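Quick one - first record:
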Amino acid sequence: MQDKKNKFYVTTPIYYATARPHLGSLYSTLLADVSARWNKQKGKKVFFLTGTDEHGQKIDQAAQKAQMEPKPFVDSFIEAYKFIWKSYHIDYDYFIRTTDQTHVKTVQAWLEMLMQKGDIYKSVYEGWYCTPDEAFLTEKEAAGFTDKSPICPTCNRPTNFISEETYFFKLSAYQDKLLEFFENNPNFVVPKERLNEVIKFVQSGLKDLSISRTTVKWGIPFPGDSRHVAYVWADALLNYISAIGYLDKARQQEFDFYWPADVQVMGKDILRFHAVYWPAFLMASGLKLPKQLLVHGWIKVNQQKMSKSFGNVIDPQVLSDNYGADAVRYYLLSQLAITQDAEFSTQALEQCIESELANDLGNLVNRVIVLALKNDLKIVPKINILSEESKSLFQAYQKMLVEFSQDMDRYHFHLAIPALWRFIAQVNAYFHAHEPWKLAKTDNKKFVEVINITCQSLRLIGNLLWSIMPKKSEELLNHLGLKVDLKINIELLKPDFELTFNLYQGENLFAKIEKLEQKATIPVESVIDEQKPIDITDFAKVQLVVGTIEQCEEISQSDKLYKLQVDFGIKGKRQILSGIKKFFKINDLINKQAVFVFNLAPRKMMGLESQGMLLTAVDEQNNLQLIAPAKFVPNGTMLK
């Protein structure tokens, strides 16, 4: 039997397969990836699970809108998830899909088991249901809406009244057990404040939970009753245990080793499902509960929650293409606290890259290597005697490592990274104070010591950065002639004065922000030479995509711009700003299809981000006309 103390099982929420991943789903996945990598560095056997949620009414309706069958519809997004996760160096162990037959069989076996126990029974359900969130409203949430349908408290959209035969899970039977568990496990939810919300919800009274639907056909068939399909949350939550072999006799040892999960990452909008329904399901199944739920806030854009439904999502691939995946990882992990909502802006990202990555770290690496090579010190020898200043630097490192490790273990990456950066500042100060460019001419022994100590410090920094910026960490260590060392427990990492460093200059770790701005914001018009033809490869770079304008709003203080929310079907929704206000009334644009440049880098105008470009043509009267297909085509269709 393997030592369970030496394992770490981490999960992300599984993401609705209705569009490509956005920045919010990337953030959740990054939190899990960093946790997995950090625990690998601690010598643990890690299992990291992510995947997609592919059943339910929301999926079915999105597929119908795209004029596709549900399965091919969800299939069309899987490669986008895997491609973007790979581009961000997300090192998951298994990507689960709820349409996987192994998962389907596990869910059906679990439902049958609970029916035999008496925890599931058939009755009739009446109540208000939010399709986008796949959630039923409580009586308290539905109260007060006498003349219209209640508004969902999570997404602020109208709900629908449902009355149908359904199977119920005896959630009410677990109310007291849940409250007892919360009292005995005050650290079950991180941050702790969110647990108070859950306790209040449970204390208000739990009613039995409807876990099947007859009005929805796209789902896992209920065992023994083909008219019903499993409620999407009763299906989706089971992925965390089906992925590691639950109810599979051939994988019993694997399941016993990894369960319970050490941490399950999610956004605050799905906390209730994970902190109430999920523990109750596990209690009914006789299984242990997860050790912790890591619940982060929302990423906001222009003070609004980022959401596919709101049309203000940011494409992680665009950010990666323009700024580099590791730089985006660093920004999200260092600047966004899990304890609260956070505003995302490209200006803050660029400032972070310029000041912290390029200047503080990248410049330090470049300076020490260029100076050493300039003075024929390609191989930096080991040293036997340290000056007091060098000893003091490593004393500061040991103090930082304790703080860094504690914050990493608590998932407070936004605190751990600044602690590391304070040490980087100390290394910069050490290097600058000793003026090694002068020592090279006057005191070669001291010169070698300063270069060695700086390289020793960079080795420590590089290894500590691996969970946060894996590729840049590896590049940094490569400059020193080293590799990430996973054999050393990261919490015991210390200077190794037996090492020699084989320096390699290569490219700078981080591009200067001026280059990034040039790359991201060159107007299309400025690179077009009407006298010089382009070839097919240049044209193929531009993605022209059909979308429907769902919303159009005026922008205060602008007499030219409209803010458009555009539906691109399976490609998701985007916010696009267009200077067409003088030529069109708002009602002229709503529900109209048009052609857009889809892969144009985001640009800021009037403090708002535009994620594409609307194409128009000028007629004989100098009025603008929309470029649109002659008849309706599915949103997301690319021009060929």
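second record:
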Amino acid sequence: MGDISAVLAALNAILWHEYVLYAIVGTGVLFTIWSGFSQYWALRHGPAVVRGEYDDPNDPGAINHFQALAAALSATVGLGNIGGVALAIALGGPGAVFWMWVVGFLGMAIKLTEVTLSMLYRNTEDPDNPHGGPMWVAARALGRRDWPRLGRTIGIIFCVSMLVSTATGGNMFQAWNVGEITQAYYGVPSWASGIVLAIIVGSVIIGGIKRIGKFAATIVPLMVAAYLLAGIWVLAANVSAIPAMFVLIVESAFSPAAAAGAFVGGSVFFAFQIGMKRAIFSNEAGQGSSPMVHAAAKTDEPVREGVVAGLEPFIDTIVVCTFTAIIVLSTGIWNRAPDIAFDEPPVFAASADGWTLPNTHTPGVDWIDGDSTFVVVSAHASEQTANNMHKLAGTAVATAAGFEIVWSPFVSDQMPEIIGDGYYRNYVGATLTAKAFDSVTPGLGKWVIVIATWLFAISTMISWSYYGEQGVVFMGGEKPVLAYKLVYCGLIILATLGFVKTDADLDNVIGIGTGIILFANIPICWMFGYQAMRAYKDYISRLKSGKIGPDHPPPHLDDLLSGRDIERD
């Protein structure tokens, strides 16, 4: 496992070099300024479009604006909001949340640009089953410039990177979290959860985009509402601490976060890096994924769907991610005291693999075989934590005499020293958020977060399966689609077999998928973004002058949710 962790970390160091982050932020700043702060029109005009005031059954497409937004949100509002935010705080501290806000705001402009581009170049040869996305932008735009092979090549590169991101962040990250939290609370083996997930997801994705759109339009509003209601209960119990948490977020964004309890500290750059990664993973701005589902919307105005897409980062990052962050921070679960007190602190010994601790017997602790834990140690200086604090991971293993913790070797040029007076259970991702709920009402996380985790994961995996499918169709047509769907469901089970155990490894796995796709999509936005900006300014000019407007009263809510408002008579 150590070798795999090292490889994952090395790949992430390349994909998430500081200059890559600067390029993404720069892209968001560019399109924000170029569009004259399109975030304003996304928030002002987007809700009317989503409400159905501009829906027309005669326009090309398969689903209405609301269903397109719901399907895209079902991919973005998921475990990135429950588990990803907790992961960001656990690794980077409160300051990571500030940088998530920055990416959420800038991401609104990036999302509008990439979706508008995809709408301009989408394939509507079959009006009821359109295809779109960055691969079609590259292929068709460069094809018009007599560079069809180059366009096709760039499109394939994007599709391959999309499939990597689909397999990791869109699929395996979701399944891993479900298996982890279900095992932690109910003792159900992770692989069993994986099998159930695979069956549920498979039964939906076989039906194609119309079934996905209807499923998303039904489940997304319900799951978000339920999560927010439960979260309000938790925040009400800690309402006096909320203002201080916002202050802490801003202060930690510009100064190193101090170590305390389970949190080992975080440098300013690491908070920036983690916040950026988690926000991009959560709202998908710049990844080129959601343009593929927006391309299925019924409309003859490309910018109109781009404006709708601009709402996604706001809802996902500014609203839902912030909600989770304040819950985790205000309950203090992120920097909690040790979960299990030492009877006697273990002592390090030198070995060929590094500094090692003897296996530790922990009688009376309700472990599950494979549970992860850690101790905080002081050793060499760490750029990540801006101090000399580190986490040393261990795994609970069942023996004839009970459970014992098997510790990983610790590599350092100086003998580490254990800090604190106990062990910490390694609550990773969604499990940490669930524990925040439990800290207010014992058992609340067991029900609310576990159920929300299942629903969020299922909806995300379903939408991401469609994204991957569009890449397969672009490269090989419709024939390989069934095989792709079977492989996709198989990966769900694979993710729950226990090869990822720590928050750092989990962050590396999803970071690789996200990083690869950004390398493929951002250059496409740079090459053709001027076309999206030209179309956007023309659309807003016509909107301001009254040349375009709602063609009819908004449809009945039931018709909007079901898609009947766009069915032809």
